[in-house]
Structure formats: C-alpha cells, structure tokens
Amino acid sequence: MTDRIPTPMVRVSTLPSGLRVVTETMPNLASASLGVWVSVGTRHERAEENGVAHFLEHMAFKGTARRSAREIAEAVEAVGGHLNAYTAREHTAYYAKVLGGDAPLAMDVIADILQHSVFDPEEVERERQVILQEIGQANDTPDDIIFDHFQETAFPGQPMGWPTLGREALIRAMPRAALTGYLANHYAPGNLIVAAAGAVEHDEILALAARHFDALPPPRAAELAPSTYAGGEFREERDLDQVHIVLGFPSVPYGDRDHYPVMLLSTLFGGGMSSRLFQEVREKRGLVYAIYSFASPYTDAGVFAIYAGTGESEVAELVPVVQEEIGKIQRAVTEEELARAKAQMKAGVLMGLESSSSRCEQIARQMQIYGRPIPPEESVAKIMAVTNEDIVAAARRLFRARPTLAAIGPLGQLAPLDRIAEGLSA
Fold first, then answer.
1. How far is the C-alpha of 202 from the C-alpha of 259, rounded, in Å?
2. Are strands 92-99 and 192-198 parallel, antiparallel or unpaired?
3. Which residues contact 98 (CB under 8 A, 6 or more apart)?
C-alpha cells in the first residue's frame, strides 16, 4: 500500500512593512496554532549581553501598556488555550494554541507583548531572579548542562558557543536598557515570521497581522556572527553516580548536500531502540541506561554528537565500544537499517501534518531557513533518495574530523581526548 501524502493548503504573503505571513488551513481541526518566529537568538548577542535574547523572551509576558502579567496569562487561558515561548541559538518563538474562533484574541495578545511591553523595573528585577534560578537549576542537572559545555567547547569564544540562558554574572548586571535595545534592534518586520496552522483562513490571519503589528521598529538586517568549529575537551569532576559524556564532531548546515544523509545517519546510528548504539551498548552489553545520537544543523555550521550516561566503572569499556561503532558505520550500512531509518523519518514528516502546532512550527522555520515552505512530498522524496553509499560517505566526512568531548562526573576511568581521537582514526 502506498502512503498518501496530503497536499497542505499553505499560503504565503508579505505585508508592505516586510512582515511575512505563512498559514496552513487544516479543515478537519478545531484548534489553531499561531505565533511569531523571530530570526534572532543567542548567536545575535554581543559578548557583554549574553542571555539577553532569553531574558527578553521572559519579559514579554510581564506586562504591556494594556495588560498586566496576570491579564496576559488569563486572556488566553480563559478560552482554554495556552501561550508559550522559547529561545534558541538562531531564533526565538512566541506562540499560542487556541480554538479556531479565538485566533484573533491570540494574535492580539502576541502582537501586544512583542510591541508594547513596558519592562517595569520591578518586573525586570523579579524575572532576573527567576532566570538566575533557571541557570542554577541547569547547573545542578548534569545531563542538561553537559550540552552547554559541549557547545562552548566545540565553538569556543564565539556566539555559537554561548549558553542560551546566559551567564550568571551577566544576568545579574544586565540593565533594562539592554532588553529594550535588543528589542528595538532586532524585532523588525524583516526578521519576523507570523505563522498559523489549523482552523485558520489565510486572509483572516493576514488581516489580523496587518492590523495588530503596526508598531514594529524600522526594518534592520540581523547580523550573524560567523561560527568556527574548534573542538577540544571539557571535563568537570563531580561526585555523581553517573558519568555524563557528549562526544561530537562538526557537521553540516541546512542546505548542505549531506543534510538528509546526516539526519538519516543519526537516526540509524543512535536515534531509537533499534539503532546501532542502543542495541550494542545498552541491550547487548548493558553499559548505559541512556545513549543516543543527534544532529543539530545551523545556518552555516552544525554538530553531530553522541550522549551517554554510564557508571564510573563502565566508562572505560563504553568509550572503546562507541569508537568501534563509529568505525563500523564508516564501512557499511545495511539495506534493512537504512530502510528502517527512512521509515522513521518519513513517518515523522507525515505524522507532523496531523498537528496544528507541529505544522505551525514547521512552516515558520522553513520560511526562516529556506525562504519558502517545503512541501512534504519534497522532504519525503529527498529522504527516500538517500543511498547506503551516501550514509557511509557522510559518516566518513563527520567522524574523521577533530572531536569534541564534554564530560561531568567521576572521570578517573575516562581516557583523555587525544587517546579517544587515536581510537577513532585507527
């Protein structure tokens, strides 16, 4: 039986201000997901303001000229919806999910918080403490903070490597003017995508965007600091029950010829319970509770990494096993495991078509990355076109570069990076 790939009802318009609006009408849904995706994040910060993008995201919910912080929360929750946001390295998102008839309310609230936040000094100080607590919590969670250490070691001394939450000393000292300045400099129409999916009509969303987004700053291009992968080693000795390890390599950006081969490589290598790493390291040898690989593409760079959490006595055996698997996948991939990985990725694309929030996120990010929504049949075709040889070639391209190692825990049995690198090249 051939899988039926629905044809999404996607439309794109650009307002005279430069603000882009993308929608997907999903006739069988009652819900509507909508929001604003801003094409700036941690990578667009200066060294002295690291953390400002995330701080600004928090402050957007803390009161506007029309609504208090409580009224912002109550406005959306009173109709059974929810409102949220997140900050990433290259973008920031503010979004809501409501019933279709409440889309105008959600658009009004999101436009209000992005254009008319008052940044009350008392709220700034209160939220400063919340973020400091968030940083403290991350530092106390080794299987969370390990990824910040990995990123900073892979991209040292540059925005790509800075923590999204910011550094404690900088957050403590960050003035209100840094928040308002970052907003004025970066939240311009050309850097914003208004996206909506579900029980929505394009013309209605376009009209709402034109009406509500009328107080954005003048158009400006977001400056993107270049990224330079360096690699290296970070170790932090802690009295823990487990050693947390991330071993990674430079990978490919969006749009690279190996983008799909790398994503499939990650899936079959460490992307699920049937993957090579899970089967060999956990199921066969019992060396870990958690092990997986991931690929993170960016505008001009990327990383491919393996995370494992293991016991102090098991780490000496774990690393050689991972090295051996890295060597094996550079030699051959079976038809069966490639077919399984393709089925997983294809299912992810098609199942995402059934969720308004998933589709809203997808079309917004595709507009940011590629400048157009990507039809699902195009994505599926590119997935299915990848060959065994493509996977092996991508593995050789990635795994023969200088690695990055980040580790936290009792590290006495963990070999130094140079010895691990030697094992990878053997």
1. 31
2. unpaired
3. 31, 32, 34, 76, 79, 80, 81, 105, 106
Location of structure tokens 């997808």: 362
Q: Which residues are catalytic?
A: 57
- Tell me the C-alpha to C-alpha distance, in Å, between residue 192 and each of 49, 110, 175, 232, 280: 21, 12, 25, 36, 45
CA-based angle 51:55:57, to the nearest 5?
120
Torsion sign (Cα): 57, 129, 156, 239: negative
Contact status, residue 184 vs residue 217, Cβ threshold 8 Å: yes
CB 81 within 8 A of CB 97: yes
Q: Provide the CB-side half-sphere exposure for 294 (13 A, CA).
A: 9
Find tokens 């051939």 and name the residue: 2
Q: What percent of the chain has pLDDT over 70?
A: 99
Using the structure block, give the residue that is written with the tokens 């774990």.
Answer: 318
- pLDDT for position 217: 87
Tokens of 14: 């650009």
Backbone angles phi, psi at 18, to 5 degrees: 105, -5
Name which of 166, 172, 329 is nearest 262 in CA terms. Answer: 329
Q: Which residue has the tokens 């999404």?
A: 8
Contacts of 418 (CB under 8 A, 6+ apart): none
Q: Report the length, in residues, of the chain.
A: 426
Q: What is the model's pTM?
A: 0.94
Amino acid at 394: A
With residue 385 as reference, give the H or E element that holds it.
none
Extract the residue ranges of the chain whose pLDDT is less than 50. 1
What are the Cα distances from residue 203, in Å, to 15, 110, 210, 425?
Answer: 12, 18, 10, 57
> Do residues 403 and 248 touch, judged by C-beta distance below 8 A?
yes
pLDDT at 426: 54
Q: Which stretches of 62-143 are assigned E, i.e. beta strand?
A: 82-87, 92-99
Instruction: Give the orientation angle of helix 259-270 with respect to helix 376-384, to 10 degrees.
Output: 70
